[in-house]
């Protein structure tokens, strides 16, 4: 899937990828999908010029370089949307998305494709315990980014027992943050959503309260629900100016904000952040840190993140997938191969 | 000490403060001082209109309201620059500067004075183990804000064993952050300073490296000193646009930034913070959390924060104190009574 320019996406034939570095693996994709962040170049916010699209992927290993030890031909693997060696000092501290060998899959590798070359395969890919049942594929695919990202948001916000978690954003990442908050044992989970179908999914994933208001009214409602204090933990999963300030102001003093919405054109007034007196952590999620745990939860059917996909199309019809996501007619589109 | 308007500060007679609430205490000040943040209204950045100045204080309790239990008449006490009840949920979580009864001493109470009424005395004041020796007064006074604030910056940045800490800012708070990082066991402490006298004091407090460069050049130098990764822990103790971005960019992915510089007119591009992938925590320091520990360290002569005062003047000459601090001819001015 190639984005020629904003709004112009086409499926075309490309040469098969080949092993270049001894740490590479070649995978044949089983499924891939379209991410909310793919809409940035689609809408012209990020540049696109014959860009290879896609950064979420699951599949079967077809070939490995001589130095690859942890995955072998035939393994079913899930990979992070950021390439990491998983051995450098930054990776070992749990921030694989800041790896010294970091490379973003989006734009360079492109996994809306039949095959992909994955650099640093040992540090990026995680094999599943065996060949997965068909119905687990969407959930495993979700782990590659949207689940891993929502999970990171909830971890960064320190969602956990005894804590009230507010999630700003009812897109796929926000819904996954609700799922994560539930798994992490949060006492109360406030989902901020005004779409009935997404509210329903938020409740399925563990939301205890729904707040429809946005901006200052949304902040006021969260405070009403938390004795006037604000939430202990807030996840920002939108990335607009309004949602960012709403998230900051919904967090109680000393509370924690995990922000995972890609926030182009957002400016945070320093003095507002200062007087909020909160913790803030965010950025591209270190999905690799969480993959082994997430894969196991899916394998054991303890979580069902795959329900976040509300449309499946063959890869050939990916252009239609972009269109319906851009028009918000689907939350997240799975692409079959 | 009253600030009539920007740049116009005068010492004048006022009626003695009286107990109003049963949780109040009246203290007779032993010493007070001028804070870098007092220069904001002095320079017209914050409004001033016959404002009672000063928020740092040590002294002897002269009277207490009926509900006060933890301090008694005759006690020598140190208080935080933020009034707190120390019993609400926010206080109990360690964020007393976000107390539901929070009140800033600056501007309302004003402790550049002979006496002051301190609300919520039990939650705000901490008695020393006895009457202090004269030479401990400056250090105890420093605990009231500048030491407590620098300490919070270092704690927020998780300064500790095995970690490299960079401190942006060589004012009193920055120097106290260096002291704190040393006490917290940091392996390496980089002080960013271009003033020889402050470099010397930074080394006295525990700095292992001095970086004179600022902005991007300062970031590059910190990276050179840290294998290209950036510091584990960074304390921002200035509050300008340049210093804020320098601090963000000096922090390694997954690292921690404690920001305690009051940052009017600073705007943080969300996308820069996103791709930095760091933790950020800051705001008005919850000094009350640290006071018991800091008082004990001072009492046992394990730390000597009082050296940060490089000029002492009688309260009557406080106007001169503002002038020399504004002109950067003194780091921090102690006012004697």
From TrEMBL, chains A, B:
PROSITE patterns: ADH_ZINC (PS00059)
Record keyword Zinc present: yes
Domain of life, source organism: Bacteria
Record keyword Zinc present: yes
One example GO MF annotation: oxidoreductase activity
Entries under Gene3D superfamilies matching the protein: Medium-chain alcohol dehydrogenases, catalytic domain, NAD(P)-binding Rossmann-like Domain
PANTHER family on file: DEHYDROGENASE, ZINC-CONTAINING, PUTATIVE (AFU_ORTHOLOGUE AFUA_2G02810)-RELATED, ZINC-TYPE ALCOHOL DEHYDROGENASE-LIKE
Domain Enoyl reductase (ER): 7-335
InterPro entries reported for this sequence: ADH-like_C, ADH-like_N, ADH_Zn_CS, ER, GroES-like_sf, NAD(P)-bd_dom_sf
Keywords, ordered alphabetically: Metal-binding, Oxidoreductase, Zinc
Cofactor (UniProt): Zn(2+)
Similarity comment: family membership: Belongs to the zinc-containing alcohol dehydrogenase family.
Protein name: Putative zinc-binding alcohol dehydrogenase
SUPFAM superfamilies reported for this sequence: GroES-like, NAD(P)-binding Rossmann-fold domains
